[in-house]
Each structure stands twice: as structure tokens, then as C-alpha cells.
Amino acid sequence: MVPQGSPQDPPPCTEADLREALTRAVQASRWSKFLADAGPALLEASLEQRDALDRAARLAVPELGDLCVINLLQPDGSLLRAAVVHVDPEFDPIIEQLKLLRPLRDSPNHQVLDSGRPLIIRDLAAADPWSIAGRGQQQVWDRLALASCVLVPMGARGRTLGTFSVSSTDPDRYTDADVPLVQGLALRAGLALDTAELYDSQRHAREFADRAAARTAGLLEATAALSGALSPEAIAEVVVSQGSGLLGAGSAVLFVRVADRLELVHATGWPPDILQRCQTVPLVGGTPVSDAVLDGAPVWLENHDDALARYPGWAPAHCNGGYQAAACLPLIVEGTAVGAMNFSFTAAREFGSDDRTFLRALAGQCAQALDRSRLYSAERAARAAAERQRDQAAVLAGASLALDTPTSQVQRLQQLTQLTVPRIADWCAVHLIRDGKLENIAYAHNDPDKIAFLEELTRRYPRRDRYGSSGIARVIRTGQPELISDISDAMLAETAPDETHLRLVRALGMTSAMIVPLRVGGVTTGTITLVAAESGYRYDSDDLAFAQDLATRAALALDNARLYEEQHDIAATLQAALLPHELPDIPGVELAGRYVAAGDANDVGGDLYDVFSSSSARIGGAAGPWSLMIGDVCGKGAAAAALTALIRYTIRAEASHRLLPAEVLHGLNQAIIHQLSTIEGRFCTAIYGLLTLTNNGVRVTMACAGHLAPRVLRRHGEIEVGQGGGTILGVYGEPTLASEDVHLTPGDTLVLVTDGVTEARSPDGFYGEERLDALLASCAGRDAGSIAAAIITDVLQFQADAPRDDIAVLIVQSAPGMNVERTSG
Amino acid sequence: MSQLEVHREFEGDVTIVSFGGEFDYAEMGTAQEELRAAEELAPKVLLLDLTGLAFMDSSAVRVILQADRRAREQGRRLALLTGTGPPHRVLSILGLVTRLDIVADREAVTGS
After folding, report:
1. Phi-psi region of A477 (alpha: psi -120 to 50; beta: other; left: phi over 0)
2. Which of the residues B27, B28, B58 would you substitute to probe the A interface, choosing the one with the greatest number of A C-beta atoms within 10 Å?
3. Which tens digit of pLDDT belongs to each residue from A577-632?
4. Parallel, antiparallel, or unpaired: how do β-strands A251-258 and A765-766 relate?
5. Considering only CA atoms, which of A359, A349, A254, A253 is closest in space to residue A297?
6. Which of A329, A330, A717, B75 has CB atoms 3.0–4.6 Å from A337's, for a disulfide?
């Protein structure tokens, strides 16, 4: 082994030196041509490093030896056989083996590296192949049968890149003169390698710059898109598409934290069945996403082995999905992880600092967007809740009014359904059980076309079986409300009787529904159905509570309406019982009685009148065994009705055995005080009279107890107002009773009214006695019924048809044209 | 002036309860409470001033009659100031003007 000088040694000056120099020059001229050819060939070679080296090695064989090996210095100081070329292609398999092996640390190559000087070995065959070639390479080495070699360091721009060697089976193949040539080739190989490296690094730099630019652009794009993404789903979509697009990830998944678990928001690159299984991930560790959230730090898994080592339970499924590497990042808002995103890659990959920086930035953007979304949705939810409450309150307020209106049940319910649309429902329907059948008695939708559509559907499919399979029938049966937050197509299909029905129902586009029972007295008598369709609203338990509230009010109102109607009937029946069915037929006398209850017909009123035959009663010499009375009881309701009944029957009883009207009223006063002593302060006013026929008309002898004075309308329109007077009955043991005696000639009329007439009010004041008298004056010549009707009409009009007190009118008219001369009997 | 207004004043031994507005069936409860509250103080004279009433029906009369009865039972004086408006008309038609202690003015009971 002879060390040789470098080609940069000073020129030789002895003869031998000159000869050698000449030989060298001749060779050099030959080799310089070779090298001149080699340079461009190397430079033009593929810019991939290995190709460049391979090309260099091929130039050396067979010109410089049977075998050329180029070793590259690795960062750890070892050498890698980057190019190995043998003159005989038959040795290729051996060469391939040789490439896989590395020269040992104490091999000649390392000596060359360490010394920086060329080395010629002429006794390779004798050398220990183990020390030359390394462990397990003896056989290979033997077959190559190499005898000598030249090794030179390879470098460029002052950097040591590796070693360059040529070997030959001829032990005398190499002299020192060969060294410069090998060095020249090595230099060119080194330059080519350096150029390739430079190019590579430049290309890498450009790629890096391009990638960085793309990622920056991607981040900007993501930021812009995220600023408009207001739901976690939309955010996830942006992040997942941007992230996987720029990273080349095969799958991207985004989870958000909900209490002690993670919920999947959006995913790409996984089959649905796998996704179905990981909709929620418990926050207990053991998966990259849960760890990322729990630790608040990214998890980088660069290959499957890495994944398997850290997540033995998770990695196999990840691998089965076709993924090797994964990057999982927590989404952190103000120090708290609110979720995580995971990108998976089909090939193993290193996550360089640029990758990590980009992903962290993306995760940061995503986390901020999620936080904005949370704030936005919280605000929107609060506003929606407030609006909903306002709408619900408005509907309830409106419902109370609608349900309180004295209209029919159907009208009330129709109003109710219209109130709910569109405030709290797109559809509203009310069903009631009538005659054992389910009847859709009211429904509402804002669009008349939709109403027509529903009517058609109801007409074609009158699903009136209360024992049927519809949700309404079920609620009727169970009395339990039903909330269907999400109406699925399967549900529609399940309840549809046939395909056509299913098609029609689908067209309604229902998204959510509530059915609440109308329960009266523990019995479900119907349902209210509220449906969301066009609005896309989903009802929740709060909405159901509202709907139940609404139904409870509706049911109560309907029950009240029923009771009201019943009570009204009872009141009317009772009132009728307190008034004469018909007035008696008295020769030469026309009678008319009218009674109008005050606006609220629920209470039995306290006004009454009566005309009856008091056969035992006689007065003077005139004929006429008839009694008449008009009265007004203080108050209304059952107690008033009891007093009214007492008055009516007491007067009938008293009239049968007392002759004087005042006696009859005294008897009535005693009866009231005696029998109704417990009813403190309750009293009545009354006029009682005896009617007798005279030979020129009718005589009425009256007693008055605190009642409005009687009027007489003379045939030609004159009004005579009686004295009135007397004290109310039922309060004092000895009431003052005023007497009144009138004679009616044919055409004259006695008018008795209660204070519901004179005390009637309008914004202009009281109706009053003067207005009554003026009206009566205008009624001259009219018959009894017409006069009674005129009074009632005028008083009602005065009060705008809403009387606040009962009105009773009794008219006694001496029949005109009956100017008969009667003989006293 | 639709609802009943009630005020209470004191002048020496006299408690004056004055009513204004409309006194009908709907206001019975209110009026009864006010009167009972005034009676709790056991005034020698309770004067009901009805002159401010634009309307009064038989329900109001019933309240007055009840108060009158309680006054008699308890040996107090219940006086009414009716004026000449609707309350007076109602009470006169019912024949109560001579039955109740109706005074011409407040001075008739306060003595000032």
C-alpha cells in the first residue's frame, strides 16, 4: 500500500520524473478526453443522486477496472454503497447483495476517508475479505476474485462526500499513475453529486416554498371560509377539506367535546359502518383523539409501527382502513381543548416542522371558529328561545281570548289552530271524537294550497278509526302526549296504509310533530296536533310542555263552554218557569209581556211579571177576577231566582184570599222576611194590581212597593205618570205601600216596566223616565204587543244591544173599538 | 269613571266613607270590604257620602241596607249623604228616603 500525492503536487524535475510526467501527460491527454466526456455525461445524467453516481461508476468500468464502487458518507459516519458497477453483468445478483451491505468501520474505505489520501491495494486476494468487505460478504468477495484496487476520497467544495474505488482481478493493474485519473473521476462524480444535491436541495426548497405557499394560501382560504362557517358541521367541512387537500390525507375526522365525551361532527375517508361506531368517543384515553384532548397536545404517528406501539387497541382498525400514519391535534380555546381533528395518511410519512406548523395553525383556526360558532349558536339559541317564548305567550294569550269567545266549539278551535300558525307550527289540526269517530274539526296552514292538499288527503283517506294505527288514535287511547322530534321516512312508511298515501304524506314535508290530548274530566276527547314542515323546526320537550299547556287551556275552555251552554240552558229554563207561559185571555183587554235578560244569560234574572185569574178576588161591583204584577228582585243568580219564585207563588197564594192589593203585598213582605230572613238585605220591588172590567173599559187598582211608577198612555197620546212610591219589600216589617187606581177606556194603555228600562245607560247617560214617556207618546194607537216591542227595541238600541240589567215590560191595554156598554153584573 | 272609588276620612267622631264612580253588582265585594273596615273603628257616626256616584243599582242599595242593619244592631248611627243625583233617585223610587238617615250635608253630622 503506497500513499500517493494529490494531483495538485508540484511538477516533477528529474528524468525519471519527466518520463513519468510524459507518460502521465500522454495518458492524461487520453484520460482528459475521457474525463472531458465524463463531465457532461455526468452533468447530463439524471439529477437524482443515485443515478448520477451510478453513471459515474459505469464510466470507470471497464476503463479503470472490473469493479467500481462509490460509497457515500452518511450523517452517522458510516458509508453506504451508493453505486456498484461490475464489468460482467452475470455478477449483477452479487452486486445487488453487495449494495445492501455496508463497509466496516475499519475497512480501507474508512482509512481513505480518515486520511484524505488515495490508497492502492495490490494484494487484495491475500487480504482478509472480512476486513475488506465485511461480515457475511466473504462468499461474494471470493466470487469477484478481485486482486487490486485504488481508493480515493470523493469530495466537492471542500466537503467529503464519500469514497470512490476501482478494483481489478489483475494484481498489477494499478500504478500510482492511475491515481490522478481515479481522483479526477472521483472529483467529477463528487461534483455531479454535489450538483445533484444542490439541485435537490433547491428543488426541495422550491417544493417547500411552494408547499408553504400553498399551505399559507390554504390557511387563508380556511380562515376566510371559517369566518362564514357558523355551525360545527360547516367548520368541520372546511377544515377537513382544506386539511386533507393540502396534506394529501386520505381521511379527516373532526370531533367536538361534549361533557365527558367527543362527538363526531364530520368525517371523510371512512366507510359509514366504521363512522357509525365512532360517533362518540369517551374521554378516557387510548385513542389519539382522546389523548390529544386530554393532554392538550398533538399526537404524531408517522407509521403503523409507531401507531401500534402507542395505540395497540386503535392501530389495527386504523391500518385495516388503509392508513399508516396519522396526525391528531387538539382544538384549543383559551387553554381548554374543545375537540380534536385527525388526519390519516395511506402511506407512512414524517411530519416535518412545516407539516406540524401548518396543522397547528389549522387547528388553531378551527378551534377559534368552533368557539365563535358556540357563541353564535348560544346567542342565536337564546334569541330563538326568547322569540319562541314570546310566540308561545302570544298564542296562549290569543287562545284564552279565542276560547273565551261565546261561539261554537268548532269556531273556537278553528281560531285556536289559526293562532298557532305560523308562530309555533306550520300545521295545526284539532281532532275530536264525535259519535265514536275521530273527526278533524279544525286545521290551519298559512298556504291555502296546502290546506286544499290536506283536505284532499283527508277526503281520500278519512282515517276516522279511533282505534286505528295513527298517532292521533294512539294519543286518544292512551291520553299520553307524543313528541316526534324527528319525523323519519320510515315512520311515515310504517303508518301509511298504502303507497299513494305515503306519497301524499311525504309531500307534506313534515319534519317534527307533537300530538297532545285534550282531556276533560279525565277523559281524552280529542287531540291538538302541531307539525313543523317548511320551517324545519324540531320540537323539543319544552315545546311539548307548551303544547300541553295549550291543550289543557283548550280543554278547560271547551269544558267551560259546554258547562256554560248547559248552565245557559238551565238558566233559560228556570227563567221561563218564573214567567207565565202565556197570558190569560181577558175579554176587552189586550195583554203583552216581554222579558230580556242582561248580556250574560248565565244567571237567572230577578225581574218577573204575572197575570192570572184570581177567581176568588172581587172588588167593587165591577167584573174582573184578574191579578197582575210586576216585580224586580235585587241581585241575580240562584238566591235571586229563589226569591223570584217565592214572590210569584206567594202572590198567587195571597191573591186567592185577600181582597186588597196592599194586603197581598203585605203578605208578600211577611213571607219574604219570614222565609228568607237569612238572605241578608235581599229585597224586591213590586206592583200588584187587580184588574176588573167596567162598562167602559178596565179598572186597575194597584199597590206599589218601591217600584217605578206605572204609566198610562191615553188613546190620543197623553202620558199620565202614576204616583209610585211605597217601600221595598223584605226589609222592613211595616212597609209603606202606595195605592194607585187607574181606569183605562178603550185605546188606553197601562205600562209597567222594571228599572232595567229607566236605569239603562249609554255613554250619553241614563235612559231615564222622560225618554220612556216620550217613546210611549209616540206609540199612541199601537197595540199592546207593538208597544212592548217598541220599548224593548228602543232600550236595547240605547245600550248598543248590551243590556246590563234585565228588562221586563207588562202592557195592559183596554181594547180599542170595544166601546161596549157593559151592564154591571 | 267606570269603577267604584272609595275614600275614607275622619272628622271628629264621624267616619266618612265617600263613594265615586259606579256602584253596581260587580263592586259589591269592594264596597262591603271598605264598609266593614270603616266599621271596625266603631265610629259613633258613619256617614256614607254617595254624592260622587254616577250610577248605583239595587246591589248598592243592598250593601247600604246591610250596613244600616248592622248600625242599628250595634247602636251606631249610619247617615247617608245622597245629593240629588242618581243615588237619590234610586233610593226615593225604592221608598227608602224616609227609612234611612239621609242628611242634607256633612255639617249635619259633623256639627261644624
Report:
1. alpha
2. B58
3. 778 888 888 989 999 999 887 765 556 677 899 999 876 444 443 445 799 999 99
4. unpaired
5. A359
6. A330
CB A185 within 8 A of CB A85: no
Cross-chain CB nearest to B94 (options A682, A728, A761): A728
Buried residues in A568-607 as b, exposed as e (16+ CB within 10 A): beebeebbeebbeeebeebebbbbbbbbbbbeebbbbbbb
Q: Report the distance separating Cα A398 and Cα A421, nearest Å.
A: 12
| Integer Rg of chain A from CA | 58
Tens digits of per-residue pLDDT, A330-360?
998 888 888 999 999 988 888 888 788 888 8
Element (H, E) at A719: strand A719-721
Q: Which residue of B has its CA nearest to A709?
A: B93
Strand partners, A152: A164
First to last CA, chain B: 31
Note whether A724 and A675 are within 8 A (CB): no
> What are the strands of the beta sheet with A261-268, ordered from one edge?
A280-282, A261-268, A251-258, A336-345, A325-333, A299-301
| Count of CB atoms situated within 10 Å of the CB of A155 | 21
Distance CA A668, CA A643 (A): 11
Task: Give chain A positions within 8 Å (CB) of B69.
Answer: 680-681
ipTM of the complex: 0.90
Q: Residues of B with CB below 8 A from A680's CB?
A: 66, 69
Could you give the C-alpha distances from A794 to A221, A722, A812, B56, in angstroms and in order? 82, 22, 19, 22
- Taking only the tens place, the pLDDT of each residue in A199-256 is 767 776 677 677 767 777 777 777 777 777 777 788 888 887 777 777 788 888 889 8
- Alpha carbons within 13 A on the beta-carbon side of A461: 17
Average pLDDT, chain B: 89
User: Chain-centre distance of CA A135, in angstroms?
Assistant: 74
Residue with cell 257616626: B45
- Verdict on whether the full-model pTM lies above 0.90: no
Closest Cα to residue A691, out of A808, A816, A583, A807?
A583
| Nearest chain A residue (CA) to B25 | A635
Q: Give the distance, in angstroms, between the CA of residue A271 and the centroid of all CA atoms in the same chain.
A: 28
Nearest to A598 by CA among A799, A763, A767, A770: A799
Q: What share of chain B is helix, strand, coil (3-state, %, to 5)?
A: 40, 35, 25
Non-local CB neighbours of A135 within 8 Å, separated by 6+ positions = A104
Is B94 in Cβ contact with A727 (below 8 Å)? yes
Amino acid type, A443: Y
CB contact under 8 A, B93 and A705: no
Task: Decide which of A48 and A178 is more confident.
Answer: A178
Rounded Cα distance, A118 and A177, in Å: 12
Nearest CA in chain B to A685: B94
Cβ-contact A314, A307 below 8 angstroms: yes
**Shortest Cα distance, chain A CAs vs residue B44, angstroms:** 22
Q: In whole angstroms, what is the distance from residue A248 CA to residue A575 CA?
A: 91
| Contacts with B65 from chain A: Cβ below 8 Å | 681, 683, 731
Q: In the 8-state DSSP scheme, what is residue A97?
A: H
Q: Which residues in chain A are contacts of B86 at CB distance < 8 A?
A: 766
The pLDDT tens digits of the residues spanning A645-696 come to 888 888 988 888 878 999 999 999 988 888 765 456 789 999 999 999 888 9
A707 contacts B58? CB cut-off 8 A: no
| Cα first-last separation, chain A | 182
Q: Hey, CA dihedral for A44, A45, A48, A53, is it positive or negative?
A: negative
Which residues on chain A are in Cβ contact (under 8 Å) with B100?
Answer: none
Q: Please count the residue pairs, one from chain A and one from chain B, whose beta carbons lie less than 8 angstroms apart.
A: 62
